[in-house]
Amino acid sequence: MTGTRIKPRPDRRTAILDAAEEQFARHGYDGVTLRAIAKHAGVDVALSNYYFGPKRDLFDAVLVRRAEILNEMRLNQLDECLAGSDQLPSVEAIIRAYLRPLLTGDHVQEEGWKNYYALIAYVNNSPEWGGQLMTQFFDPLVDRFMDAFRLALPGIEDRDLYWAYHCLSGALTLTFAQTGRIDHLSGGLCRSNDLADAYEHMVKFTAAGFESFRQ
């Protein structure tokens, strides 16, 4: 008698998170219902309620899942940057530590990460969501990077550093959206889904912006 191989049971909790991530990224928070998410995940809506509760709690769970991964990667990069120099860290090295885990590596082409980045772009550009959620999930990370910029740029006013960071964050958010706008404007010279190319150009441009405050 030949044994029958039993397929592993799908992780239904993960399936709900993946479906919610995709639906929120495509339609925004208000354009999605828990029933639609459950249907997309192939589960009963009661199971979604069991795991996550109301829609807002599911939305938060989607955001925090990958935020924790990204924050750990970026802080590890920052620690390496600060430990690897006997002198003051360079602005470019700090920016690379901030951006590299987000825009380089095989994971950035995975559908789940694309959906997450689109969702972050949506949240960060929403007056309703941006302040509260970005504060909750990312402020401790940003505080660490701001301290590093202060080390790299002694004597520069905090006001200037925060505006420089604002421009860096804005460029990153627009890149996350991958709207195809730059593809059209450049006649195909640039592709909004080429995150590695965006990374190199963003590093050079934003590093020069931070450095300009030395003058």
From TrEMBL:
Keywords (A to Z) from UniProt: DNA-binding, Transcription, Transcription regulation
Q: Where is the signal peptide?
A: none
Q: Does the keyword Transcription regulation apply?
A: yes
DNA-binding region residues: the ranges are 33-52
Q: Which Pfam family is one of this chain's hits?
A: TetR_N
Acetylation is among the record's keywords: no
InterPro entries in alphabetical order: Homeodomain-like_sf, HTH-type_TetR-like_transc_reg, HTH_TetR, PsrA_TetR_C, Tet_transcr_reg_TetR-rel_C_sf
Classify the source by domain of life: Bacteria
Stored Gene3D superfamilies: Tetracycline Repressor, domain 2 (1.10.357.10)
Q: Give the HTH tetR-type domain ranges.
A: 10-70
GO molecular function list = DNA-binding transcription factor activity; transcription cis-regulatory region binding
List where the protein spans the membrane: none
User: Which residues, by range, are in coiled-coil regions?
Assistant: none
What protein name applies here? TetR family transcriptional regulator
Q: Which organism is it from?
A: Hyphomonas adhaerens MHS-3
